[in-house]
Amino acid sequence: AQSVTQLGSHVSVSEGALVLLRCNYSSSVPPYLFWYVQYPNQGLQLLLKYTSAATLVKGINGFEAEFKKSETSFHLTKPSAHMSDAAEYFCAVSEGTGFQKLVFGTGTRLLVSP
Amino acid sequence: DGGITQSPKYLFRKEGQNVTLSCEQNLNHDAMYWYRQDPGQGLRLIYYSQIVNDFQKGDIAEGYSVSREKKESFPLTVTSAQKNPTAFYLCASSRLSEAFFGQGTRLTVV
């Protein structure tokens, strides 16, 4: 069965600093991996997705993630944090295209200080 | 604009009442899902449907029921058997490799 582990329920950075949110996955087949962002009392918005093409995936708002099969990781990064990046971030895994029975991590809340 | 509409945004339920959360999509997606979100627990799958008139239990289906009579609609009923229904509920639909989410319904038991 698939699973996702997000290390750190909260991550704090200063504005302009590097953002690194960690995600490790477990899957018995080549996975599809996703990062979503959620602002308070709203739904989830897709940041980026890995679907077995390029291992370095670029998403919206300057975020990117690298799929590392040897480490079973899909960490999310952004070179320079902005105040508007403060939100909750979820990593998710599914086992293929078409039917997206996503399995989510527990989320990481990103706090950005001036 | 295409998307997923959940209603209402806020819902209050008395003990012992059933309530129904609405989810409508105009994206022409076959698959639809209901997730429950609690603080610190991520999203957990309640029910999903891959096609009209068919649906499957997810990981936490007890105390919930769904129907899928139309492609566009996938309502969720929270029954009185659900002992801890206070949560944020998210509906989603998907096609190929991407899922799209509604804005959620926050259900509170009073």
Descriptive report:
Chain A contains no helices and twelve strands. Chain A is globular, with a radius of gyration of 13 Å. With 114 residues, chain A is mostly beta strands. In chain A, the strands form three sheets. In chain A, strands 2, 5, 6, 10, 11 and 12 form a six-stranded mixed beta sheet that branches. A four-stranded antiparallel beta sheet of chain A has the order 3-9-8-7, with no helix packed on it. Chain A has a two-stranded antiparallel sheet with strand order 1-4. In chain B, strand 5 and strand 6 form a beta hairpin. In chain B, strands 2, 4, 5, 6, 9, 10 and 11 form a seven-stranded mixed beta sheet that branches. The termini of chain B are far apart. Chains A and B meet through strand 5, strand 6 and strand 11 of A and strand 4, strand 5, strand 9 and strand 10 of B.
Span of the ends, CA to CA of chain A: 41 Å
- The total of beta strands of chain A comes to 12
Largest sheet of chain B: 7 strands, mixed
Oligomer: heterodimer
Q: Look at the helices and sheets of chain A and give the structural class.
A: mainly beta
Tell me the β content of chain B. Answer: over 45%
- Helix count from the secondary structure assignment of chain A: 0
In helices, the fraction of residues of chain A equals under 10%
Largest Cβ-defined interface: A-B, 24 and 29 residues
Concise synopsis of the structure shown:
The complex is a heterodimer of chains A (114) and B (110). With 114 residues, chain A is an all-beta fold. Chain A has no helices and twelve strands.
Question: Which features characterize this protein?
Answer:
heterodimer; A: 114 residues; mainly beta; six-stranded mixed beta sheet; four-stranded antiparallel beta sheet; 12 strands; globular; B: 110 residues; 0% helix
Q: Layout of helices and strands, plus pairs?
A:
The complex is a heterodimer of chains A (114) and B (110).
Chain A: E1 3-5, E2 10-14, E3 19-21, E4 24-26, E5 32-38, E6 44-50, E7 56-58, E8 64-68, E9 73-78, E10 87-94, E11 103-104, E12 108-113
Parallel strand pairs in A: 2-12
Antiparallel strand pairs in A: 1-4, 3-9, 5-6, 5-10, 7-8, 8-9, 10-11, 10-12
Chain B: E1 4-7, E2 10-13, E3 19-25, E4 31-37, E5 43-51, E6 54-57, E7 64-66, E8 76-78, E9 87-95, E10 98-101, E11 105-109
